[in-house]
Amino acid sequence: MMPTVLALLGAPTAALTALTIMYALVPVSCGWQTNAALLACSLIGFVFSVVVTVMAWRQWRARAPSSANVAGNRRFLALVGTCVGAMSALSLLALSIPPLLLSACR
């Protein structure tokens, strides 16, 4: 159940936290004349999101489809966690595109 909770709550939180930290690091990156801090922040969040998504996916695959309510609910939650984690990883990947294309001082 823990990988599901991490994917459901941790991955979107990592995406929002990375966005906030990247926004706060823009003046620092402009002063340093490099976007490395911005890219590192999005990369750390991306790796975390991918790891918890894979953990939730493994939990979803490990649970056999059954007619029991509790087992079915846990399998469904693992599937939703996998989808939420994948969307969070995709958003973090999208967050890393602007630092690659634009300067932090613009």
Structure description:
- By secondary structure, this protein is mostly helical.
- It is built from five helices and no strands.
Layout of secondary structure:
Blueprint: H1 2-24, H2 26-32, H3 36-62, H4 69-95, H5 97-101
Helix pairs in contact: 1-3, 1-4, 3-4
- Mind telling me the C-alpha Rg? 17 Å
Shape: rod-shaped
Q: What amount of the residues lies in strands?
A: under 5%
User: Could you state the oligomeric state of the chains shown?
Assistant: single chain
Number of helices: 5
Unreliable segments (pLDDT under 50, ≥5 consecutive)? none
Give the rounded overall mean pLDDT: 88
Q: Quick one: how many beta strands?
A: 0
What is the structural class? mainly alpha
Order of helices and strands: HHHHH
* Helix proportion range: over 70%
Distance between the termini: 44 Å
Largest sheet descriptor: none
Short characterization:
The chain is mainly α and 106 residues long.
Offer a few descriptive terms:
0% strand, 5 helices, mainly alpha
